[in-house]
Known about the structure:
Layout: H1 2-20, H2 55-111, H3 115-124, H4 136-148, H5 152-165, H6 172-186, H7 189-202, H8 209-222, H9 226-239, H10 245-259
Amino acid sequence: MKRLVVTLALAASSVSALSDDGWVSVGSTQVVAPASSEPVVTPDQSPILAPSANSGGDLLTELMLQVEQMKMEIASLRGQLEEQQAKVKRMEASQQDRYLDLDSRISALTLAQPVAEQQEVTNSATDTTGQDLPPAGEAYKSAMQLVRDKKFSEAREAFDSFAENYAGNALAVNAIYWAGEVSMVEGKLDVAEARFRTVKEDHNDHSKAADASYKLAVVLDKSGKKAESKALLHEVISQYAGKSDSTVSLAQAYLKKMSQ
Length: 260
C-alpha cells in the first residue's frame, strides 16, 4: 500500500514537470503570446523607426518656396535700381538745363557793353569771304538757341565760327568753351578735349578757365586717361579754392566717385 502511494506521487510530479516545460497532453493547445508591436530595443541601440514618407517632399517644397521668394526679392531690387537710375538721369538733365539758363543769363549781362564798343566790334567783324557778319550778340544768342533746341552739331559749328569770326569779342572764349560742351554731349571726346584745353591753357585767367579745367578732367576720365584726370582734378581743387567754389565742389565729388 505504501509502495502504491509513492508511485502515484512520482507520476504526478512528472506530469507537472512536463507541463512547466511547455508540453501538454495530446489534444491540448499551447498558448502563444501575440507578437509585440513595440520597436525592438537592444541595450546598446536606440529604437529603429521607419522614416516618414513625407519628410523629403516637405524639404523640397520648402526649398522651392525659398527660391521663389529670392527671385521676387531680386526682381524688386532690380526695379528699385532702374527707378533710381531714371531719377539720376532726370536730375542730370535738369541740372544741365539750369546750367544752360544760368550761362545764358551771364552772357546777356556780358553783352550789355557800351554801345560804342559794341558798334566798333560789329563794324570790324567780317567773315573769311569779306561779307559783313551779324552783330556779335546776335550770333552768340543764335548759337545758344541751337543748344537749347538740342541741335548740338549745328551749335558746335556755330560756336566755332563765332570764336573765329569774333576773336576780339569778350564772348569768344565762352564760345570755345561751349563748343567743348556740345562736343562732349555728342560723344566727340577728342574735339571736346581740344576745346577745353584751349580755354585752360590759352585763357587761364578767363572766367571759364575753372569750368574748362574740370570738364577737361571729366573728358580725360571718359577717354580712359584716369591718372591724368585725377591729377587735373587735384589741380582744380588747389588752384581754384576760394575763387570758384562750385567748380571745386564738383571736382571733389568727381574725384571721390573715381576713388570708389
